[in-house]
Amino acid sequence: MDTEKITEEDIRKNIKYLQLLSLNFPTIALASTEIINLEAIMNLPKGTEHFLADLHGENEAFEHVLRNASGAVKRKVNEIFGNALYETEKKELCTLIYYPEQKLQLIKEAVPDINSWYSVTLNRLVKVCQNVSSKYTRSKVRKSLPEEFSYIIQELLHESSVDPNKQAYINVIISTIIDIDRADDFIIAMCNLIQRLTIDSLHILGDIFDRGPGPHIILDTLCNYHHFDIQWGNHDILWMGAASGNDACIANVIRLAMRYANHSVLEDGYGINLLPLATFAMDVYADDPCTSFGPRIEDEAQKVDEKTMRLLAQMHKAISVIQFKLEAEIIQRRPEFAMDDRLLLEHIDLERKVFVLDGKDYEMKDCFFPTLDPADPYKLTPEEREVVSKLHNSFIRSEKLRKHIKCIFRYGCMYNVCNSNLLFHASMPLNDDGSLKEIDIMGRKYKGRELLGRVGQLVRKAYFADKNDPERSFALDYVWYLWCGKDSPAFDKSKMATFERYFLLDKELHKEEKGAYYTLRNDEAVCDRILDEFGVTGEHRHIINGHVPVKAAKGEKPVRANGKLMVIDGGFSKAYHPETGIAGYTLVYHSRGFQLVQHEPFSSTQKAIEEGQDIKSTTQLVELSSQRMMVKDTDKGRELMVQIRDLKKLLMAYRLGIIKERS
User: Fold this and answer.
1) Contact (CB, 8 A) for 646 and 21
2) Which of 35, 319, 435, 614 gives the lowest tally of CB atoms within 10 Å of its CB?
3) pTM, to two decimals
4) Which tens digits make up the pLDDT trace of 345-372?
């Protein structure tokens, strides 16, 4: 509670602001009412925050985790009904809440007395809804309600069924909903409201794109979500670079789509025309088996016939070679990136079919390079240049991609500080002694918070800046560097060994050495130093990361540095499951503390609807508070305290006659 005394001098100093504030609260009564309202909000439990990382296009698993709030809905149902319902009844109710439209269709086909089912189910949904809405003000709940049912839901939520008269009132409302054939629509509205109120805010710690089949579907959901933020990951930045017109980023995006047979994301999701690449690849690599370039298909639903597999492999190799040439153009243009060690095509001896590095010959898996000129290995052929030009135009003209990228810019940044938690996707560049590493950008050194701020500024300039802006050209190249550069806070490894994995047999050359942060972040003192750098305060403060999958199968733990660090990339992507042994972590931060949820692989949305198969999840308590955390203990609470103090100044100004009330 703010106890600092307000003086007349305070009012005089802030008179212009208070006069503006008086436009919204023109009387003592209105200002007083708002103070009472804000003070009441401060003493409500904090809203539940939901943290997800590294979604990698796995839209079905993402949608399910979002709908079930990492098991929070199921926990609520168990708390409310306990032993009053059979497990099968609770499971069916949960599935209905997750997928109301689809589940209703199945139930109506199977239930003989649908009206009785409607009556029972609506009463149960009202109880769940009353529970999840209890930590919010009526005003906030009202703003979340669907317009057509707003009045009715408000009546049901705020009337007690304990009072016999009120129970009769509630029963009449429900029976009337059923009688006038509005039960289906009302149930859907209630289920969506429960989903919305269970999670107050959503944090996405990067890497929405690549590997999985539905990043565009995830973004359709996110762009319409009630409250979320994104900390950009290297895969997101890659797509942002592609949408900005960086050809090397475009080539990488297409290569990854070919590698995981996700061409439909480009063609159907974003309207990217891949025909020029397909035509070129079929012609140039007609006699090449492209053995190392067969797509990696993890999902049965993505399986394709042999002819398509062959074409994808040809396109995969074609765009990979184009990518290496385009990247070389940036490396040669930007010596400050210090990436000459990634100029690898010049080390291929086409006659002897070996890769020569530091005077040593390395055996190659594949040495068929029909578009490579030994005299100028990084020069694109006229046909390759034409393919690049057409792909470039397709990317920058995609309206759907533009919409999604603007959404990522609007709700995203390199890092976020929220309620004593520092969120960023991958790394904080460090020296070996744990001190913050200085990174040179355009002749100036940056580190820590200032580094991430400058990086975020350049990513925005690459997309939004006018072509005449002197920094835009550098920014456009730098976005690619963020994808794979050794000092990139979104990557922070010695190299991205794409060429080596495709073409060289020696696995020692495939290794990518991680930056110092990935080891030193296990040290509590290092985490404290980073938290101090970002001004993160509080008795319980944390760094929350994604990016590097936690290999639970090998005994790795997501909580480190004596609880100061949480790594929640457990591998949503099916491509990671054999390595991690699980299918992702999510983090839930509610008024009583942190809960880390470890998920098993998700079968399918269809099985979830038809058989009630939820994601099998294991919840571990990371940190529980002795006292329930209230809104006044959060960042929002601190904002409200400032508003309350300003309103009290306005109140005093009215009473002293410094500002006149208006009718």
Assistant:
1) yes
2) 435
3) 0.91
4) 999 999 999 999 999 999 999 999 999 9
